[in-house]
Amino acid sequence: MNKSNLNEIELAYDRLGKGAPLVLIHGYPLDHTIWEKVLPLLENDFDLLLPDLRGFGASAVPRTGYLLTDIAADIAALLDSLGIEKAAVAGHSMGGYVALAFAHAYPQRTLGLGLVASQARPDPPERKAARYEEAEYILSHGVGEVADGMSVKLTADASLQATLHALILRQRPEGLAGALRAMAERPDSTPFLAGFDFPLAIVHGLADGLVPIERAREIYDSLKKGHLIEVERAGHVPMLEAPQITAEALKILA
Predict the structure, then answer these.
(1) Sheet containing 110-116: which strands, arranged edge to edge?
(2) Are the C-beta atoms of residues 89 and 110 closer than 8 Å to each other?
(3) Mean pLDDT in the chain?
(4) What does the CA dihedral 7, 55, 122, 36 come to, rounded to 10 degrees?
(5) pLDDT of 153-181, one tens digit each?
(6) For 106-179, where are the E strands, in sequence order?
(7) Cβ–Cβ contacts within 10 Å for residue 20, how many?
(8) Calpha distance 87→19 (Å, rounded)
(9) Does 139 have pLDDT greater than 90?
(10) At a CB cut-off of 8 Å and minimum separation 6, what does 93 contact?
(11) Is it true that the peptide bond before 29 is cis, omega within 30 degrees of 0?
(12) How confident is the model at residue 225, as a pLDDT?
């Protein structure tokens, strides 16, 4: 992987393909490899950037707390370092929250937005409190229980569960804890999306047990223009469960 020092963080990323710039942003508690199945389907249409978000994968863990806007600033700094003025941004789950934060903070740099198994609503108070509690638990007990619990919630596919379990075990407790706190503090993006005037692709599994399909439909119903692709039999990782459908949906961002 490539590495750059950005915003006092060593950020790791991969880059491949040719075409319009597209940043693919992974979700929690994963890293950039979550996109591996869609890359061969997109690399002829896009200049693909795949960062490991701060605290995940090969990127460094910050020493202080941060918000999703700080992660979005990392994406902007990465684009600056590569001489890319504008890009489409697509995010999975938490990565969707980062993509929304980027589009909100840098509308002049946003060519389009993709939301994969994500949502626009903020956490209700009880979920926000639970994230903070989970962050403390992970710091004390490590990521093993997260890997056990999340891998079976992300998908019903047993082979993918094994892959995701191993991927989560590679993450660091501090990275997961920081991300949980950042997600807990995210704002309501529904009003922003209602006025969004760029290409927007929503991809959501009908069997998603973490973010109900209704969240995707709410976003779509509020849009001026956009595309909603509901993926049958897919759970919370449609880029792994249905890569062809996911890739075709994201091509509207080209």
Answers:
(1) 2-6, 9-17, 46-51, 20-25, 87-92, 110-116, 200-205, 227-231
(2) yes
(3) 97
(4) 110
(5) 999 999 999 999 999 999 999 999 999 99
(6) 110-116
(7) 16
(8) 11
(9) yes
(10) 27, 28, 116, 117, 118, 210, 211, 236
(11) yes
(12) 82
Q: What is the mean pLDDT of residues 37-64?
A: 97
Tokens of 51: 């960062």
Return d(Cα 131, Cα 202) in angstroms, integer: 25
CB 82 within 8 A of CB 68: no
Q: Which residues of 123-156 are buried (b: 16+ CB within 10 A; e: fewer)?
A: eeeeebeebeebbeebeeeebeebbeebbeebbe
Structure tokens at 54: 């701060």
Domains present along the chain, CATH in parentheses = 2-122+187-253 (3.40.50.1820)
Average the pLDDT over 172-195 and give the result.
96
Note the pLDDT of residue 197. 87
Q: Does residue 30 register a pLDDT over 90?
A: yes
Residues 6+ apart with CB under 8 A from 42: 17, 22, 48, 247, 250, 251
**Percent share of the chain, pLDDT over 70:** 100
Phi, psi of 84 (to 5 degrees): -105, 120
Residue 122 has which token pair? 């903020």
Confidence class for position 23, pLDDT limits 50, 70, 90 = very high
Q: What is the DSSP letter of 224?
A: S
User: Strand runs (DSSP E) across the chain, as ranges?
Assistant: 2-6, 9-17, 20-25, 46-51, 87-92, 110-116, 200-205, 227-231
Region 37-65: mean pLDDT is: 97
Q: How many CA atoms lie within 13 A of 63 on its CB side?
A: 4
pLDDT beyond 90 at 224: no
